[in-house]
Amino acid sequence: MLAVIQNIFSFVILVLIQVLALNNIQFLGFINPYIYILFILSLPVKFPRWLSLILAFILGLTIDTFSNTIGMHTFATVLIAFFRNGIIKLFTSIEEGSNPVPSFYSFGVGAYIKYVVFMVLLHHSSLFFLEAFSFQNFWMTILRILLSSFVTVLLILGIRSFNRK
Amino acid sequence: MRNLINFLIQYSVLMLFLLLEIISFALVVNNREYQKSVFFTSGNVFVSNMYEVSNSVVEFFKLRTANENLSEENTGLKNEIILLKNELSTLRPEKEDSVHFQIPPEMEYKFISAKVINNSTNKLQNYITLNKGLRDGIRVDMGVVSDEGVVGIVKVVSTKFSVVIPVLNDKIKINCKFKKNNYSGPLQWNGADYRYANLNDIARHVEFSLGDSLITSGFTSTFPEGIPVGTIENFKIRESDAYYNIKVKLAVNFRTLSHVKVIDYKNYKEQKTVEKIAEQ
After folding, report:
1. How far is residue A128 CA from its own chain's centroid?
2. Chain B contacts of A50, Cβ < 8 Å?
3. Which of A50, A89, B60, B76 has its CA 20 to 30 Å from the CA of residue A74?
4. How far is the alpha carbon of B64 from chain A, nearest alpha carbon, in Å?
């Protein structure tokens, strides 16, 4: 029960930070970090996949509603929610029966960073290509993906390094 | 049938994933063309209300810039008022001109108001800087007056600024005369007190008394006749002297000078050319 309330709280906080602060950054014209996916990244490892998909859908739709990008964030967020378990399995060896929340502590620093980088890149790639909706400015889109991912990863790792455990 | 159900259960997550992705992709594609649903955009009441609250917070931090902009706009408007007033004052006499046949002498002059932005009174050669220049119609040799009386003569003009040699500078002499009997002489500052200057070249036989007022003579194209210069404070004459040594209390308080008017003599060019021809 406590975990549910905590999760709802972090959902609301992350959405507010994203739409009220980060969406207004537009650093250098196109760097726009999206840290709201930290909510998906921080779901427990054994969290029911169907539920995480639904939550990702709601989260993406909320962000979309606020930023008038209907469908884009939804698509990208559902995508990372689906591939999350596979990526976790790729980088870590979680013991059977345990159900940790992904963090530096539970994954190990290197594995957690890889996990975050991979998830962020996946999310940003789908998001920015969906936003461009073409491969015309391919390298420009790639540049945007890399720069924004870099900032997002830094922010997420920064936030996570504060709450150890 | 059982197999189908088994299949669905086995791949339920994948199915859900595909369903959600198809929905969101459809949303993207549908909304690329035109904004269809208001609900899932910032047009929806909840979202717009929230943005309003957030804006009111952000606005608070933008107050400083807003203030600056407002004050800039204010000064701009004030300048425009001055400009329009100037224009009005120059237009009015012309209208009267067309009604009356004669051009009254005082209408040959136009005033350009300016603000003193730099001023000194404590040196031997003081200068005053004004915030108007070439683009406002100021040129070299124009006279500068304040509401009280004569201030000086424009010496240097740039596009936006001009430098005035005031009476308080031993480099200039301003020709002035007694209001009551028209005897004239040059007024020169001695570099001592910003309130007083000396009037020279007044011959022994001229009759005047303390407190008599001095006005500009109108002999130069710089100042029209009749602008107050000062009053006689004190005078001395020795037996051997041919001229009086007169101490004049200046009409203008140079210490508190802030707004002045530059005199634009409309017939300046014509007068100069005529005088040049005569000298040749």
Report:
1. 14
2. 12-13, 16
3. A89
4. 20
Q: Are A53 and A64 in contact (CB under 8 A)?
A: no
Tell the residue number behind the tokens 């933008």, with chain if given. B62
At the top level of CATH, which class does the domain B104-279 belong to?
mainly beta
- Considering only alpha carbons, which residue of chain A is nearest residue B34? A70
> Where on the phi/psi map is residue B182: left (φ > 0), alpha (ψ -120 to 50), or beta?
left
**C-beta separation of A148 from A33 below 8 A:** yes
Encode pLDDT of B95-114 as tens digits: 444 443 333 444 567 778 88
Closest CA to B203 of B228, B231, B178, B224: B178
Nearest residue in chain B measured CA to CA from A51: B13
* pLDDT above 60 (res B28): yes
Q: What mean pLDDT comes out for the span B115-140?
A: 83
Give me the residue spans of the domains in chain B. 2-61, 104-279
Among B24, B26, B29, beta carbon nearest to A60:
B24
Instruction: Quote the radius of gyration of chain A (alpha carbons, Å).
Output: 15
Beta strands in chain A (DSSP E): none
- How close is the nearest chain A Cα to the Cα of B93, in Å? 57
Question: Which of the 8 DSSP states describes residue B211?
Answer: T
Residue B86 has pLDDT above 80, yes or no: no
Q: Tell me the C-alpha distance between B26 and A34, whole Å.
A: 22
